[in-house]
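Morning!

This is the sequence you dropped in the shared folder:
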Amino acid sequence: MVEMSDACMMIHKKLDTLPMFKFPFNSELIPENGIYFFYEEGEHWGHGGSMQRVVHVDTNIDKRLVEEIEAHFGNEFRRMHLTNSMHKAISSKRKITESEFIKMAREHLSFRFIVLGKDSAKSGIEKYLAKVLAECLYCTPSRDWIGNSSDEKQVRDSGMWKVHKTDHTMTKEEEKLFEKAVGDTYKWLEKKGILAPVLRY
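The structure's back. Tokens below.
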């Protein structure tokens, strides 16, 4: 078993070596399958400094990762857990049109991804990553976080828009699987013309 706060710090630091994407983005730089991690403007991790914290983790292994990510930023936002939940939370406090919400999502959301190969595509690792991030005692939501208006207690308490139901806690083996996926992502990005990241930690 991996200690939650240490694992949370490790996940954030590893992801921070990868490029951050905002809308509009080049769809050719998004893989067919992968785990994606959304960040929300104004939300920071709790391990020191101003690094942004992950607020949502999800995955697609049906070769439609691009379509799924794009849906968060357009008229299909209601079919995505993240943006549908955000819209509901905002709507509970004030009226907001769909166009206003889409504009806000495009301005305030950003994301990173890791490529999933055959060895990890069906491992369910995104659930364990999300669980670690949700249960970290240091990475708590800010006072102004949109999720504070959610009608779901788990969302308000964890600072994560989707809390996966699993009793399983991330193990050393899964930590290695995550690190391998990050390494595979470096290689994938290099093939797309993006230089390997400079490790800052």
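Headline: Residues 4-191 form one domain.

More detail when I'm at my desk.
O.
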